[in-house]
Amino acid sequence: MYADVSLIASLAMIIFGLWMLTWSANRFVDGAAELSQKFGVPPFIIGMVVIGFGTSAPEMAVSALSAASGHSDLSLGNAYGSNIYNIAIILGAVALIRPILSNSFTAFSSAVLLVGVSLFSGFLVWHGSEFSRIDAVVSLLVFAVLLPISCWLERKNGVTTEETVAEVSPVKHPIVWTLFGLILLVGSSHFLVWGAVDIARAFGMSELMVGLTIVAAGTSLPELASAIASARKGQNEFVMGNIVGSNFFNTLAVVGVSGLVRPFSCEGGHVLSRDLWVMVMLSLTIALFGCSFSRRKFAVIGRIKGLVWILMFLIYFVLLFIQEHSCIR
Questions:
Q1: 1 Cβ contact list (under 8 Å, min separation 6)
Q2: DSSP secondary structure string, 272-313?
Q3: Is 216 in contact with 84 (CB distance < 8 Å)?
Q4: Which of 69, 179, 245, 299 has minimal CB crowding within 10 Å?
């Protein structure tokens, strides 16, 4: 009887979380779009800074809590794993739902930025026996320096699609709606994850599988919801800015804050030998799929490219599961 009540409560949390996630994502994107036009900021920058960084709040929370409880090493896997999910699943799913019109300059510069910070982050972890507080400070300083440079380059060279300008709907009090939508977006993702974890355990899923699937995907739900909402509204720059900003934030700021709380090492793990290079490869595909190799300023990331991203993630996940399962045995 108690188990049935608990299962019903978990299902209710999932349904409520999905509804709130969808509603808040739309409000969040509407507010961000109005901010972009009201203050004359390129949509990609709003997507990168406001949407991308804002939706990385779950990753930051998980990493900070893990560090405080003595599991700082988990922060690296959390950050890198979320980055892989963001590109392969979120961009892939959005492209399947609605093809993305990509600015070639933005796609190329984004790929260079993400590959660079990924390799730099991997070097900080690899070069010593641990990711120390000095490494953490360096990581955060690089983040603070590269952020304004990236925004300046995008403002100078980025080109806004006509579709993005046409689809923006006026919203009263955009700052309030943006902040309110973000809070509900992050909060509703927690409801969804809690309900899903309870149901998974009720059906006998192991803690490993719950962590690899539901929790990992759950921390990226805000990015997924806001990206889908942006794509449906034709906000192409928001979609790419969301993913680039989130990955940029995860790689330098999330890992850096975790290292400040408590230094960590990844000895014996596969983060540097496996996940880092998968993340770098997927970052390169942003340029490969999002750049026009003619003189046109825009390229279309269509459904075939989206399917390729998702297939790449499925292959990675199967190999990850096999490797983790063999380690347990």
A1: none
A2: IIIIHHHHHHHHHHHHHHH--SSS-SEEEE-HHHHHHHHHHH
A3: no
A4: 69
